[in-house]
């Protein structure tokens, strides 16, 4: 996207706006009935008081606007033919008044008889410029290439490492007047807050240090800027007014004298006694200097320039901006996974990671590891037989226990399959590609099934069809199952939708073609657009969720744990944020019949085995815990079988390790509704560590507990008081890991 008349950090106001999108920012394709073009735009901090004229440019002359269909957030706009000039092929589609949306995004979808080359929006009556280069020159009076260039040293650093950074900015041909200056953007979490002498008296700085974007306290490091030709004045821009819009600490550097072409500004971040500690625990290559949307992962210490004091800070062009790479640490750990069922345990894979669990490499059937059956822990009873394999290493890695394996199945009909279905990537507001997401799930996390759940508000319809095609191509029944899904977001909370079907219509809270507010709108949209089998799963309800179980046949599960923490009950030790919504137990108390899943909500494409964020503050500051994972009891590894288990709530969830917790009542599996006056409970647990405590939770309270202090636990007994809405079990291991069974429902 070519930058707008005012930069992405200027506050809202009643002003003229121009937005120009070139073809590389648009999603398009031939649908057979015409060319479909779409884009998700962000109007955060834009003037939305006036309607915007929407123009499109085609390579084809003789373009027919009358044959064009244009929609904004699902609503048709009236087309008004208005060709600018034959040689430029610009056409006015019509005008639209954008309203505020929960995600500050809008979905523009256009169907045309010919391909669309560029898109131009303006709230003025001015016609578009002939091309992007002329637009840029008319907007600023100069091309971005004349603004200079930046470099950063070092330009790569290891996760969680300490460094001294130097940013070198060379002034471009445009120069910088003493009324102008530059802004340096320092991303939250990845880098600490900047500090210089005297700043401790600044109320804005005090707020950042004490509270910060994620509740603080925030670390800081010394920040210093010099140039040979002038004194420099530093100003930390107001956090809530500017920084919150870009998710960066923004430092304005202003010269007291004019700077000329080739002059150098040096910015040093950190001192020997006060080095900059990277807060990022996962690898990523940053190469984008332009904040297209609030979540765009721009390069740390990016430079924006106002050469003539107009108050318009323009990002350097991508070719003239530095890049930065966060790399994983040295190989330190090996994580082995074994099959969860089978007459004899077998090693599935070994994943070699750094200290933060970032995968370095993966091997199937690893030769340097073997199962030592003498050191393994075994269990055998009339109903259950299991083994906790001890893994020996022939190399430099120490041995240890893997995950438990059921060697004798308690029910010959079902096997255990592990999955993680709540995660994000660069498809929406995350990082890294779709291919990296699914490769991680299969090759590193050794999942049996997975799904990606992009925020629908950040995906347009044209791109969604391509996503479905790619996910469907990765589905391998019997080996690795992929589901299709997305996340729907409103001010009242979040819900994820999943299906085994190859198709899944996409809808958003921001769409205006169907009426309703909050979750009423969600259910109206689902009933109108969905005609295939789907499962709906809400998540992190403690963060805020207006619970309405309008369709209990579809909403069958709830995510009890993720990298947000646990929503099991209020004031629990695995939740460190405000509690504005109901807990899982409170929702069950209202009569909802929901099984349990756990996931990650990863935003860097690492489902099932996330980097360990403990003690770090990344750009996704709410994600402070390790990923969760869950298992189904299913007949086989196919989409239909997994989906049936989800619908029947035949699941158990964990805080990340693959311990097993099974619950039956009167012979029926967890997730079932139980009839009759008697209630015979059957509990079996196999941990990855010794089991510290197993609790029976009935109607919000832990009514009974056992302390096995062993790797296995089995008990069958009659429950004296069977009254209540729900009952589930939770196992707490000595290493702090937790396993939850899905509830049974006595009435």
Describe the structure.
With 747 residues, this protein is mainly beta. Helix content is 10%, strand content 37%. It contains eight helices and 48 strands. Strands 32, 33, 34, 35, 36, 40, 41, 42, 43, 44, 45, 46, 47 and 48 form a 14-stranded mixed β-sheet that branches. The N terminus is likely disordered.
Q: Can you tag this structure with a few keywords?
A:
747 residues, 10% helix, 14-stranded mixed sheet, globular, Immunoglobulin-like, 5 domains, DUF3604 domain-containing protein, disordered N terminus, Jelly Rolls, mainly beta, Pol/histidinol_Pase-like, 5-stranded antiparallel sheet, DUF3604
Domain count, please report it. Answer: 5
Distance between the termini: 57 Å
CATH topology of the largest domain: TIM Barrel
What's the overall average pLDDT, rounded? 88
Radius of gyration: 28 Å
For the record, what CATH class of the largest domain applies?
A: Alpha Beta
Cα shape = globular
Q: What percent strand?
A: 35-45%
Structural class by SSE content: mainly beta
**CATH architecture name of the largest domain:** Alpha-Beta Barrel
Helical percentage:
10-25%
Give the CATH superfamily of the largest domain: Metal-dependent hydrolases
Protein name: DUF3604 domain-containing protein
InterPro entries: DUF3604, Pol/histidinol_Pase-like
Region (Disordered): 598-617
Organism: candidate division MSBL1 archaeon SCGC-AAA259E19
